[in-house]
Amino acid sequence: MLGAKLNARDYVQAVEREVARLDHGAMEELARAIFQRYCAGRFVYILGNGGSGANSSHLCEDLGKGSALPDENAKRLKVLSLTDNTSYILAWANDTSYERVFVEQLKNLGEPGDLVIAISGSGNSPNVLRAVEWANTHGLESFGITGYSGGKLREIAHKNFHVDCNDMGVVETLHMVAFHYAVGRVYQMVLEHNQTLKLCA
């Protein structure tokens, strides 16, 4: 943990260096992948463990509320965090194995054309990988969100946003930087899309 080794000023400067190295193209690609599901009426599923699970819930909330237009009749983005059904997760974990807590939800809910945003700092979380493997073989698109070396998730996901940093706290922070950009960008695209529809009506 960088915070255990650096003072506050040096820590912030280290984070700033990592921010400067973010892949802007991948951030835009993430936003567009989400917007494509909005246009197609498909679902966006988000998943992760621990801090990545918290980021999953945060991104889901931001996208669900942050893409809603003032017009009450406007179409909404279909988005769900698979980290938030505690009883369902515990049932699968207790009765089978923790590796199945996400994939079994996808088996109930996922359909071809949906998007799975899979968050794993290491890129090697077995339950995340299992969900992505299932998604890849059932017509869903997978978008990996990783840190460190990217692990296996970076290899198997269709698309990736990777933070090349070996500190989990910094990785999770920069994931949220990308997510907050994506939320704003998605809102902009949704707004423009709906304005165009009104002009053409």
What do these coordinates show?
A five-stranded parallel β-sheet has the order 2-1-3-4-5, with helices on both faces. The mean pLDDT is 95. It is built from eight helices and five strands. Strand 4, helix 7 and strand 5 form a beta-alpha-beta unit. The longest helix has 33 residues. The radius of gyration is 17 Å and the shape is globular. With 201 residues, it is α/β, with parallel strands linked by helices.
Oligomer: single chain
- List the secondary-structure elements in sequence, H or E: HHEHEHHEHEHEH
Radius of gyration: 17 Å
Largest sheet: 5 strands, parallel
Please give the count of helices. 8
Strand order of the largest sheet: 2-1-3-4-5
Tell me the β content.
5-15%
Mean pLDDT: 95
**What are the segments in which pLDDT stays under 50 over at least 5 consecutive residues?**
none
Distance between the termini: 55 Å
Helix content: 55-70%
Tell me how many strands there are.
5
Large-scale geometry: globular
Look at the helices and sheets and give the structural class.
alpha/beta
